[in-house]
Amino acid sequence: MLLSIFLGSNFVSSVIFDEDKKQFQKENTIKIPFNGDNLHPILTLKKLDELLAFYSDKEKEYPRIVTSTYCQQLNIKVDYSVNDIIEKSKITIIPIDAGCITDVSFLSENESANFLNLRRYHLNIPYKIRRMVDVREIANLVPNLSGSLIDSQKVLLSTVNIDKKDIDEYVDLCTRAVSNFCLITGNWHFYFDFDYILICKISAYVKYELDIWELFESLKPLSSLIIAPQVNSIIEIGDNEKLKGEKIELDKDKITKIDMKVDDKKNVEWKSSKSKFKGIITGSETGILVDTRDRNANKKI
Amino acid sequence: MPIKKSENKLVPNKIIFQKDSYYKFKVDSQMTISVKSGDKIKAGGALANHNIQQEKIVDVSYRGSPKVAVGETIEKGMCLYTKGKFIPKKIFSEVTGIVKEISKDSIKIAIKDKSPTFSQTDLKASFDSEVISVSNDEIILKFPSLHINLFGSKGEPSIGPISYIESSNIKAGKIDESKVKGSIIITEKITLDIYPLLSTLGAKGIIGNSIDYYLYRDMIILAVPVGIISGFGNLNEDVNLKKYFKDNEKKWAWLDTSYDRLVVVENDCPPWAKDYKFDLEKIGIA
């Protein structure tokens, strides 16, 4: 048995993993309370144990692994950074942690004051600001993930505290943000972790060197993205290799959305001076975004 | 797993009474520490004295024959030694002092250092305290205090009496300058005008309930340290804290920018501060 813990700036997530049965139990995500005492670290081993009150004393004694975004000074031994997990799991993980943002100049005076106050006191950040901050984090992280994006067609966006009503918009926003700042062409499925639990699970699988893809078998991608710069304005989609299906017109300056659900499989073909593709694509809960914009002209997005 | 939506808007440890707080005095190498571990010091009591007319040794290296003897008093311009066998050249002293030692290649002369002309007791305790430890260059004092944990701070730590001044009264020509010089000033909001004015008037520290974020961010080189109590933007003051500052003018405090806190010397915990919770809703956050 293993207790896998993820430490974000303001949140602690944890799950128990039974490595023999390959089963997870007792998932838990909790906000780290702000206690105001500047003399002591916000999180110590003792405080972490208090936050893990959800578990029995016996469960708390299980061997532990701790994964963290490394955004703040912790008085706790961390076993893995998210980069370690990316390297070992071969999955592209984009950890969204508002505590990691240092430059808030993209926000207005009022927004930055509001954001920094709420973050400092560990209070919920309104979605209106969250969406801007999270897009900025994606902008900071994605250009450095090219190697991982080449290796993996699965992208995990790990975040916390998004209201149910905002999820659809958030999924679309984040997928478009990745597209805006991604430097390479490819086809990816996006999985979302809305409570940092999946990242705990991946860490546990990494620890035991298990097949990470098993974790995704029961999950559905919430979004999908194809980046194919400067492809001809029409791509062909069909149910078989002869592609006698529909032709979809693409706008060179926009991201086009194709309505293809998770279980939909289509043959597709495109060609351009920069990329070509012939093969099968599958959909997602929210369809597929196809981005044909020139990457170089993309800087101001 | 859904996350609980209820949020804690009461901060428990914003204000903490500490029976044992510690303050470290760095002592200049030209001073002699006049206290020892365990001493109880009253406010104004001497901690270290300047060594007036401290003896300094000047080491003059030479090759030749000394023309002075150990114990001899020499004046600047006197011949110290000669060098060269056939036509000996006289080398003159550049200092006045007493010859302490002559070896085969150096003459050591003790001179009177007349440079610091400070008073006899330059380092005094600002408040009642107990000496915890003394080393060559530092004295650690223990004292009881009220810690006010700040939202943030910048600059070098400073120590001085606190003085609360309403922002509206911090204007050139209007402000009571005697309240500013040497004090840690506490006010509602630090603005672009307030900081330079208070710095010029000799404030030892400036603490605002709030400050605009971009002003705070762009303060890079600070002559006077800055502390923020509540946060960025326009925030309400905590009424209890404001009253405390107003009622306790001249009380000594230490603006500790290393740990973002204002440490006010207090013998006992003020009744209002016991189990005090800082209400984020009342100050306008959340």
Structural topology:
The complex is a heterodimer of chains A (301) and B (286).
Chain A: E1 2-7, E2 11-18, E3 23-31, H1 45-51, H2 57-60, E4 64-68, E5 80-81, H3 82-89, E6 92-95, H4 109-120, H5 127-141, H6 146-151, E7 154-158, H7 167-181, E8 186-193, H8 197-207, H9 213-217, E9 223-227, E10 234-238, E11 246-249, E12 255-258, E13 265-271, E14 276-282, E15 288-291
Parallel strand pairs in A: 1-4, 4-5, 6-7, 7-8, 9-15
Antiparallel strand pairs in A: 1-2, 2-3, 8-9, 10-11, 10-13, 12-15, 13-14
Chain B: E1 10-11, E2 15-26, E3 31-33, E4 40-41, E5 46-50, E6 55-61, E7 65-66, E8 73-74, E9 79-83, E10 89-92, E11 97-102, E12 106-112, E13 123-124, E14 129-134, E15 138-149, E16 152-154, E17 158-164, E18 184-190, H1 194-200, E19 205-211, H2 213-218, E20 226-232, H3 239-247, E21 252-256, E22 261-265, E23 278-279, H4 280-283
Parallel strand pairs in B: 17-18, 18-19, 19-20
Antiparallel strand pairs in B: 1-23, 2-15, 3-5, 4-14, 5-13, 6-12, 7-9, 8-11, 9-10, 11-12, 14-15, 15-22, 16-20, 17-21, 21-22
Task: Describe this structure in a few short sentences.
The complex is a heterodimer of chains A (301) and B (286). Helices cover 28% and strands 28% of the residues of chain A.
Quaternary structure: heterodimer
Please indicate the percent range of residues of chain B in DSSP E strands (runs of 2 or more): 35-45%
- Figure out the total of helices of chain A: 9
Question: What count of domains describes the coordinates of chain B?
Answer: 2
- Give the strand content of chain A: 25-35%
Give the overall shape of chain A, derived from the CA principal axes: globular
Main sheet specs of chain A: 6 strands, mixed
Q: CATH H level of the largest domain in chain B: which superfamily? A: Phosphohistidine domain
Strand order of the largest sheet of chain A: 6-7-8-9-15-12
In the CATH hierarchy, what is the architecture of the largest domain in chain B at level 2? 3-Layer(bba) Sandwich
Low-pLDDT parts of chain A are 297-301
Span between N and C termini of chain B?
24 Å
Q: Over all CA atoms, what is the radius of gyration of chain B?
A: 28 Å
Helix amount of chain A: 25-40%
Low-confidence regions of chain B: none
Q: What is the number of strand segments of chain B?
A: 23
Please write the CATH class name of the largest domain in chain B.
Answer: Alpha Beta
